[in-house]
Design brief:
The longest helix is centred in the N-terminal third of the chain and has 23 residues, at about 80-100. Helix 1 packs across helix 5 and helix 6 (about 240-250) runs parallel beside helix 10 (about 300-315). This protein has a single domain (about 5-315), classed as Rossmann fold. The strands form 3 sheets. A 7-stranded parallel beta sheet has the order 3-2-1-4-5-6-10, sandwiched between helices. It has helices at about 10-25, 80-100, 140-160, 180-190, 210-220, 240-250, 260-270, 275-280, 285-290, 300-315, and strands at about 5, 25-30, 45, 65, 110-115, 165-170, 175, 205, 205-210, 230, 240. By secondary structure, it is α/β, with parallel strands linked by helices. It is globular and about 60 Å long.
């Protein structure tokens, strides 16, 4: 039986991946700080995210290790939060690499989370993996996200795991129904008549349906030629104003009050988050996935939102 280890897999993406690979007949092991008994076949194993412990024995001989660990960036970027955001990503990547290096039988593939935020803020030509221009933002808040992404990938690249294929998943906004997904939040705002453009509405949004995210992970595992950075996003990023229009159309809500930049800055302050998550223009495309032959089930934002709206209705009626 094939085995995948999901380090830091107790959240939204880990849950979706666990269901996906369990359905394929894989054994799924989740590394988490607070393991608990489960009714399904998934096993949870304790780890502290920053040191090699007993959990490392789980890594020996498995097919895939996927590291999803990282403190949420949905917070204010104060000194403590910045440190936790950086250290949670770098330390977990470092110890996963150390565990793999000690294996008698190394995993075939190591997938490590990264972020599409590593690319330049742009309204022009979209970025694929061949783009050399990383973000050179002078604003300290914007530069921090890029520094995190670069340190994250550098730690992965420096790990001495010659018998394991390494992939950095530069993931964009993932749309799904689970907790910590942005879809329920935007859906609720739209239903309340607050689904207008945010800021200028011109900033591009890169995204991916959670089903395509899981399918792409499965695809990458199966294709040995895919290593290094890979953009996990749909092929059609769109401006924020168009994104919110799609929400209104699918929700059949004719009214969508816009939110100006100053309103969002005030709101972000009271919600203890950062407006960079909204204002940065992320125009990223999945060049390597498309070139390898991967086909998206939800290539457009409207298709993705329509599917999730139907799933939401099905859950509500069941």
């Amino acid at each position: 039986m094939e085995t995948i280890i999901l380090a830091g897999g107790s959240g939204f993406l880990g849950g979706e991946l666990a269901r996906h690979f369990t359905a394929l007949g894989w054994q799924v092991v989740i590394l988490t700080r607070l393991p608990k008994p489960r009714a399904d076949s998934v096993r949870e194993v304790a780890w502290d995210t920053k040191s090699v412990g007993d959990w490392a024995r789980e890594v020996d001989g498995v097919t895939v290790v996927m590291n999803l660990t990282g403190r949420s960036v949905d917070c204010r970027y104060n000194v403590q939060n910045r440190r936790e955001i950086m250290e949670s990503r770098v330390n977990s990547t470092r110890v996963v690499g150390q565990a793999i290096a000690k294996c008698k039988t190394a995993p075939r593939v190591w997938l490590n989370s990264s972020t599409a935020t590593v690319y330049q803020h742009t309204f022009g030509k979209p970025h694929d993996e061949s783009s050399r221009e990383m973000d050179s933002a002078t604003d300290a808040k914007d530069a921090f996200s890029v520094e995190v992404a670069q340190a994250w990938e550098q730690t992965l690249n420096e790990a001495k795991t010659p018998n394991t294929r390494k992939v950095a998943l530069r993931t964009s906004m993932v749309l799904g129904l689970g907790r910590n997904s942005v879809f329920p939040v935007l859906h609720r705002l739209t239903k309340l008549g607050l689904g207008g453009r945010q800021g200028s509405g011109k900033q591009f949004v890169s995204w991916i349906h959670v089903e395509d995210f899981c399918r792409a992970v499965e695809w990458i595992i199966a294709h040995d030629e895919l290593s290094g950075p890979i953009n996990q996003c749909a092929p059609n990023p769109l401006p924020n104003a168009e994104m919110m229009r799609a929400f209104r159309e699918v929700c059949r809500m004719p009214i969508g009050l816009p939110a100006s930049e100053w309103m969002l800055e005030i709101g972000a302050f009271f919600l203890r988050t950062e407006t960079e998550l909204i204002f940065k223009s992320r125009r990223v495309v999945p060049g390597r996935l498309l070139a390898s032959g991967f086909e998206f089930r939800f290539p457009t934002f409207r298709e993705a939102v329509m599917d999730l709206e139907q799933r939401l209705k099905s859950h509500a009626s069941s």
